[in-house]
Amino acid sequence: MTVTTETTQPARSALRIGPIALRSPVVLAPMAGVTNVAFRTLCRELEQSRAGTVSGLYVCEMVTARALVERHPVTMHMTTFAPEESPRSLQLYSVDPANTYAAAKMIADEGMADHIDMNFGCPVPKVTRRGGGAALPYKRRLFGQIVAAAVRATANSGIPVTVKFRIGIDDDHHTHLDAGRIAAEEGAAAVALHARTAAQRYSGTADWEQIAALKAHVTNVPVLGNGDIFDARDALAMMAATGCDGVVIGRGCLGRPWLFAELSAAFSGATPATPPTLGEVATIIRRHGALLAAHFGEDKGMRDIRKHVAWYLHGFPAGADLRRSLALVKTISQLDDLLGELDGEVPFPEAANGPRGRQGSPASVTLPEGWLDDPDDCTVPVGADVMHSGG
């Protein structure tokens, strides 16, 4: 069950991750196909314009260590940062200490990023069936070796390494306390917990009590909480209930990139800006579409904006025909014309709040044969990085 509490006091308003000092304890969770340079730029612009500052950490979508070392073109494009982005944050997926070391050293030597986050939270079956993502922390020694490799590769570079993971594989196989302890012992600058098991995927309720347990267990590095933060009140409540040092925002910002401005205001004790009208949301969608077109080209950019439009219009009145047309939009000009059909005077509705994005249903976790037999086995999962070699 989620721990809930009411709080009227601003939470702690700063967070340090290694040498990186953040004005707000807020991190954008890397999300595949979402947190590219276009989305990050939009979030930063909205925070700057609505809150007068850029105060959190905006993480690039996950890239695979092996693909990065091989300089796969798609992966290299995914590591694009805007000129004004600082600090630049990149998330690595890895199952192999050797590839981890090579990728992290490449990032450090070539000045590709200022921060590396390690992904051990992905619950997707094609990942866990090969021992990657949320399955990997069960192999405690291998997990520790991978974290240590990244820390060793970035030594003396000023690049902190952080680690994100879930509660465990399922309710019978919790790994988060060991994962947090091991990551800290191996030199991670912070740890983040998505308070669900891999079996839950994105369903049900995040168990904030496990964030509190991790915070009590890991006392020498910051502990961040992730799960079921859909507005600023949720973030304040999580920090008050768990004592965590910061929050990681995932699905809560889908179709709501101005959430970071609201969080910035909440953590500073300021009054947040009024939520946008439908006309203002349309302007934000136009800007998002333009940024995607600049990054991908117009054709792919418009294909990518389609899913975002559905999130943006969640809870707003918009006819079925218009929604269908927007779901097939092909050009920026067409996007602009269709958005012009929306009633710009409609205020932000209560129905637009709450969960967005994928939720799905819980399911048993597919694992390699014999995966649970020996948690101290250090064998690198066979082929777990191959399926992601394109990024």
Output the radius of gyration.
Answer: 20 Å
**Biggest sheet statistics:** 9 strands, parallel
- What's the total count of β strands? 13
| Class computed from helices, strands and strand pairing | alpha/beta
pLDDT below 50 for ≥5 consecutive residues: which ranges?
Answer: 1-11
Shape: globular
SSE map:
Elements: E1 15-17, E2 20-22, E3 26-28, H1 37-51, E4 57-58, E5 63-64, H2 65-69, H3 73-78, E6 89-93, H4 97-109, E7 115-120, H5 125-128, H6 140-153, E8 161-166, E9 168-170, E10 173-174, H7 176-185, E11 190-194, H8 208-217, E12 223-226, H9 232-242, E13 246-249, H10 259-268, H11 278-296, H12 298-312, H13 320-326, H14 332-339
Parallel strand pairs: 3-4, 3-13, 5-6, 6-7, 7-8, 8-11, 11-12, 12-13
Antiparallel strand pairs: 1-2, 9-10
Please outline what is shown here.
This protein is of the alpha/beta class and 391 residues long.
Can you characterise this structure?
38% of the residues lie in helices and 12% in strands. The chain has 14 helices and 13 strands. The chain is an alpha/beta fold. The protein has helices at residues 37-51, 65-69, 73-78, 97-109, 125-128, 140-153, 176-185, 208-217, 232-242, 259-268, 278-296, 298-312, 320-326, 332-339; strands at residues 15-17, 20-22, 26-28, 57-58, 63-64, 89-93, 115-120, 161-166, 168-170, 173-174, 190-194, 223-226, 246-249. It starts with 14 loop residues before the first strand and ends in a 52-residue tail after the last helix. Residues 1-11 have low confidence and may be disordered. The strands form three sheets. A nine-stranded parallel beta sheet has the order 4-3-13-12-11-8-7-6-5. A two-stranded antiparallel sheet has the order 1-2. Helix 6 packs parallel to helix 7. The longest helix is centred in the last third of the chain and has 19 residues, at 278-296.
